[in-house]
Give the backbone structure.
Amino acid sequence: MAPRTAPRFAPRKRPAKRKAAPLGRVAVVDIGSNTVRMVVYDVPARLPVPLFNEKAQCALARGLTKTGRLNPEGADEAFRSLARFIRLSRAMGVERLELVATAAVRNASDGRAFVQAIERRFRVKVEVPSGAEEARLAALGLLSGVPAADGLLGDLGGGSLDLVVLDKGKFRQNATLPLGHLILPERAGDVPAKAKAIVNEHLEGLPWIGRIKGRSLYAVGGSWRTIARMFIEQTRHPLHVIDNYAIETEEALRLADLIAGLSPRTLLKIPTIPNRRAETLPYAAMVMRALLEIARPARMIFSGFGMREGKLLESLPPAMRKQDPLVSGAATLAERAGRFSISGEEIRDWIEPLFPDDNPDARRLRLVASLLSDIGWTEHPDYRGEHAFHRVLRLPFAGLTHSDRVHLALAIFVRYNGAADSPLVAPVMSLLRKGELEQVQVLGLALRLAHTVSGSAPGLLSRTSLKIKKNELVLQVPEDGTPFVSETVERRLRTLGRAKGLSARIA
């Protein structure tokens, strides 16, 4: 096995832990081997939605294998981009700015001077993590959405491939290999056969990689996300969301082999591929294919979360880190978009008698659906269902499989009087699990009834209850049931009863 590239200077020591303070806006600037990107987050929840996300192509690692130094033009572009990002972060009211430089800066002979120049010019601190620490941060970002991830994380950047074994969320072996999509063609003299031999030599030198067989390969990194978009197009997958997009290994091998054999000129003709990705994308596909062939996972799962999200998560107070990212994200959205702040827990607890034999994952999804069940109230009544369906389907939250997304979106669509056989939802219905449709319809109808009974106001729903008695669905109301009973309530109760195969009455 070829020796790993050693860092030219020791990574900066991690600062001593400070007392946690409430966070507002946090920005993470990733000074990568190929791009410099800033993401600004608002931090009321554990993994908040980005307020701002912009990257600049700098290719700092271009030429590194020949010169041992950073690409001069790329360094100039990086300084220009950093000047813009840092000024923007201050104008945006960012309270905490984290700058992280990765493989190219870590391995370049002039990396230290580059970091010192940034720190002098902009009066900021730049962290340069070791390869193992960078891999750990990428895994932390993945685990923020998939806490029980089981298999191998692969994070492909321009300068390196970071690998981490995950045993149901626990960190195990890791490696950082000089197989980045920018430096691999340089090491191989732009000869694909030689590049393939280099990749195989490094991967076959990892004795623990065989432990991944039959498990999952989690793919992180910009080039691999570009490949995911191509996979989605080629397989006609009905949902264009990268995060948690899964594909079986044999299909991924076939498509990766196809992409690895395409020329940059051919790739430039594909609208979804950025021009600057086309040159190195075949090498990114080559690394993917080799990793799939040697590790033999059962499936490949792409993640929209990586090192930047890991860095953000690390900066949060301990109590916030323990939150479920999906639930906390939905709760934050409900607080901002809701009318009268009816509690998601109040709704979920009220509808639970309809789902007596369910598991914790399904209960969690019902809580999220309950939190999001008033998301469309600001829209025109004729379009509430349509807008809510698309919005929920494409939520930028971690922790949702594509089946989960359809489950939630269809339930909210039904809550807004949408029909499960509507042409609007037909394209994604194939993503629902077998036998799930009836359960989703019941959930949507129950949410609609909950909002009808309570008027979406807090504290009222808990004064009533739903019960199933033999073959009957009963809505129990207080003795003076005037605030809770109407023709609409009765009609929607009967509709929910029919969906469960029950008669219905108000007691």
Notes: The domain at 324-506 is CATH 1.10.3210.10 (Hypothetical protein af1432). The first strand starts at residue 25 and ends at 31. DSSP finds 21 helices and 14 strands in the chain. The chain has three domains: 25-130, 146-304, 324-506.
